[in-house]
Amino acid sequence: MLSAVAANALTVDSRAQTVDTIRALAMDAVQQANAGHPGTAMALAPVAYLLYRDVMRHNPADPDWPGRDRFVLSAGHACILQYASLHLAGYDLTLDDLKQFRQWGSRTPGHPEWGHTAGIETTTGPLGQGFANGVGMAIAQRFLADRYNRPHHEIVDSWIYAICSDGDMMEGVSQEAASIAGHLGLGRLVYVYDDNHITIDGTTSLTFTTEDKGRRFEAYGWHVQHVDDSEDLDGLLGALAAAKAEEDRPSLIVLRTHIAYPAPNAIDTSKAHGAPLGEAEIRATKEAMGLDPDATFAVSDLVREHMAPVLTRGAELQREWDERVTAWAGAFPALANERELDLRGEPRDGWREALPVFPAGEDVATRDAGRKVMQALKPFTPTMVGGSADLVASNNTEFEGAGIFSAAHVGRNIAFGIREHAMGSIVNGIALDPAMLRPYGSTFLIFSDYMRPAVRLSALMGLRTAWVWTHDSVAVGEDGPTHQPVEHHMALRAIPNLWYIRPADANETSMAWRIAVERPDGPVALALTRQKLPTLDRTVVGSAEGTLQGAYTLWQRGDGEPEAIVIATGSEVHLALEAAQSLDANIRVVSMPCWELFDEQDDDYQDSVLPPSVEVRVAVEAGVTLGWERYASAIIGIDHFGASAPYQRIFSEFGISADAIAATLEAELG
């Protein structure tokens, strides 16, 4: 039997050797791939070790267990740190996977990818995105805790941990997210800031010297601690414990690290940030750590034994949580039934029938129609949450009477403030944690530019988010060209897996929201008008349910194959209809609210709407014409910036009118 001194020495050696093994695996993987970021992973090995072995509540055998804590590596370039930690903790990630780091088809890509690797909670790449995702996860946890927890019966009590870098701290999105996290008092957020003083171009003295990052976060309302020695495991554990004891404020631990520690010739160098250390330096580093310099991807029996309790503890934690859920369900059966319905991630039965149908003859802005649709959806979608970037009154995106989410109250409406960057990333975080939540974010279409990195990531991850953008064209009018989107329709359609919808009237808006609610594998964006549009008479034109196919025949003068087709989206559809109806030719009007959805239809359907033999096709959209050539022989659009004037005058001056469309059709028909 070991003496107490010997047992303590063995424990200390096990901890140190495990930390150094993470470092060695990071060096080996980056060297073999000849690409990657070893230095940050080496410096942060103590943090990752403590989180995965001693601090976080997680079960490697069930990475999606709802009761787990979440970990976000916002410094996603250091992903080999997380991969090595996941492997040692017992997740389904092998040494062979580490050896395939950054290779084709591997489970260890160059940045963490959600849904691709067990244990990865979000896709981080662009710096600051993971930081803000974590804030969204904390909002989700608080919402669900308020929804389900009852006195002495808490089943939602997870913590969100993250590692962020100097780059995260410099990016504006993290500052927006930190501000709202402090405002909301998101106390279950614990972030470790890797203060290593190094960026790609050199030391942070080049760019990042005049502010005290800790005091900045204190000003945001965060609880801030400083740990000056990243190798002090007990000190770091104490700081993490103190962060968890502070439940009324988010916590930041400013950790002074040294990039590439303990590599003899690479410590505190910018080269160690984003390049392999080289065989000689790796050998010297392993010797300094007391590891076999000739061994690669080596994990000792001592380290395996030391990390084995993670699986055992995880299984026990999950068992205890399952027992809590069982007791909670027994005490609150009606609430448990609600949770089961929530877990399906679908609206309550009857929601489609509740969608409003708008009568013809009334002019309605599609943003106003969207507001009515949201109110109809409200009782059927209790876990749909979201808000606007300080434009609720303009976007009309609010669940009336559902309350504001704040530090003191949990409502369904989130007041994001003028923080479009963070709103997008926070909405993604809500969608990630867990899938039962259906979040949305809204602002003017022109400001989708601020959100683009988050929108792109929502499409990359296939998240069930809804993006609602109003004031969707030069018809914004008097605000002028700074606020008038022209290139945005095409710019957003260029994002793979994003469905972008411009409804033509109130009833297409109802169908657009139906698409947003039903889509199971990606985000849906709604581009809605400020100006009023005629509600089309559906006894004369095609059913708005054609929206569900992305495009449909709205109207045709004659029978059989048309002489010409005019295709339009959004606010230009009624102008196209007016133009076609003014001519004697057999012209078909096609409403095409969603390119992406139309392209998913089979060839027979597409050909039925746009017969290949019909050569005369005119496309109409109040935006740049680039891209419409795939569908049309002539295009009416706006290939320049707008102007400040009433929108009717702008449309007339820019040729977006029924007369201009009719003239183009006549010219094309010869």
Descriptive report:
With 670 residues, the protein is of the alpha/beta class. It folds into 3 domains: 4-131 and 158-173 and 185-314, Thiamin diphosphate (ThDP)-binding fold, Pyr/PP domains (Rossmann fold, 3-Layer(aba) Sandwich), CATH 3.40.50.970; 351-534, Thiamin diphosphate (ThDP)-binding fold, Pyr/PP domains (Rossmann fold); 555-669, Rossmann fold, CATH 3.40.50.920. Helix content is 42%, strand content 13%. The strands form 5 sheets. It has a 7-stranded parallel sheet, with helices on both faces. It is elongated, with a radius of gyration of 28 Å. The chain starts with a helix and ends with a helix. The model has no long low-confidence stretch (mean pLDDT 96).
Q: What top-tier CATH class of the largest domain fits best?
A: Alpha Beta
Mean pLDDT, to the nearest integer, reads 96
Cα Rg: 28 Å
Strand proportion: 5-15%
What is the CATH architecture descriptor of the largest domain? 3-Layer(aba) Sandwich
Main sheet makeup: 7 strands, parallel
What percent of residues adopt helix (DSSP H or I)? 40-55%
> Which segments are poorly predicted (pLDDT under 50) over 5 or more consecutive residues?
none
**Strand element count:** 21
- Find the structural class using helix and strand composition: alpha/beta
Helical run tally: 27
Can you tell me the CATH superfamily of the largest domain? Thiamin diphosphate (ThDP)-binding fold, Pyr/PP domains
Gross geometry: elongated
Question: What is the strand arrangement across the widest sheet?
Answer: 10-11-9-12-13-15-14
Please tell me the total number of domains. Answer: 3
* CATH domain topology of the largest domain: Rossmann fold
